[in-house]
Amino acid sequence: MFKPRTAALPLQGKRVLVTRTRAQASVLSEQLRKLGATPIEFPTIRIVPPQDWHVLDAALRRLYEPHEASAPFYDWLVFTSANGVTICCERLRTLGYDPGALQNVRVAAIGPATAAALASYNIATDLVPEEYIAEGVAAALIEDAEKRGNPLAGQRILLARAAEARKVLVTSLQQVGAQVDEVAAYYTHTVMRDDESGHAILDMLRQHQLDILTFTSSSTIRNFSIWLQSAMQDDAFLKQETLLAYPTLACIGPITAQTARELGLRVDLEAKEFTIEGLVKALIQHEENK
After folding, report:
1. What confidence tens digit (pLDDT) does each residue in 182-202 have?
2. What does DSSP say about strands 45-48 and 179-190: parallel, antiparallel, or unpaired?
3. Is the separation of the CB atoms in 174 and 153 below 8 Å?
4. Kindly report the CA angle at 134 between 131 and 140, in degrees rounded to 5?
5. What integer pLDDT is reported at residue 1 of this predicted model?
6. Cβ-proximal residues to 36 (8 Å cutoff; 6+ apart), any chain
7. Tens digits of per-residue pLDDT, 70-106?
8. I need a labelling partner for 88 at 20 to 30 A (CA). Which of 46, 78, 143, 205 fits?
9. Which residue ranges form the domains of the chain, and what is each CATH number?
10. Which residues pair with 186 in a beta bridge?
């Protein structure tokens, strides 16, 4: 009896390197598996909380303690990653506060994943920009203030994020007169992979066994490059250009892509929507257009 041929999945048989933190890798890996790919998790970064909590604790307490005439100390609480949300909300619980009881401060999230992280702590998001990058957050905050007839000049904004984050958001807000408290909620550390896993990935690159390399932040691509340079030191014949000539290099958005190019890496595709879903869509499109 004739059996109709089952249509191949969009990423069938593709081996895809996932460089996100171990805690976050599964979100992308699961989507890749559903599309027929084989995800290979190789975290190049790890998220580390502050060694000294004093500055962050003081800022978080101000969210719950009234300022002058019972007014809130901060007008805005801004998050630029789900990592920042998790660190801050878990710290609030440690300090004895309920994250879901946050009141009288407006909350902005850089994108839907960050907004979803806030929702998991019962925190409503008041603003998500159309463009999920720092420049988009700044523009959205300024536009929102103008629409409400309440300029940002003089408003206090708490920005809890990675210590290594770009300064463009702070600078843009300060230029319109906002008072920005930029507090390090966490640090992004390199995962140096001089181990069995690292050697295996290097061998796969040598043998053209990785089809796609995915990068979801500047830190993932930067630390991948650091690892690769270190891994090549033992073999004078290894060249970055040769190792990376075969796989497709995929970036989640323009900032990550810019970092890759600054490191001398070729970028084959850049997601139009700067989310994991957007990256997956871009991978599918890229494969279909081959």
Report:
1. 999 999 988 766 678 888 999
2. antiparallel
3. no
4. 60
5. 47
6. 8, 9, 10, 11, 12, 13, 14
7. 678 999 999 999 999 999 999 999 999 999 999 899 9
8. 143
9. 15-44+191-288 (3.40.50.10090), 48-189 (3.40.50.10090)
10. 162
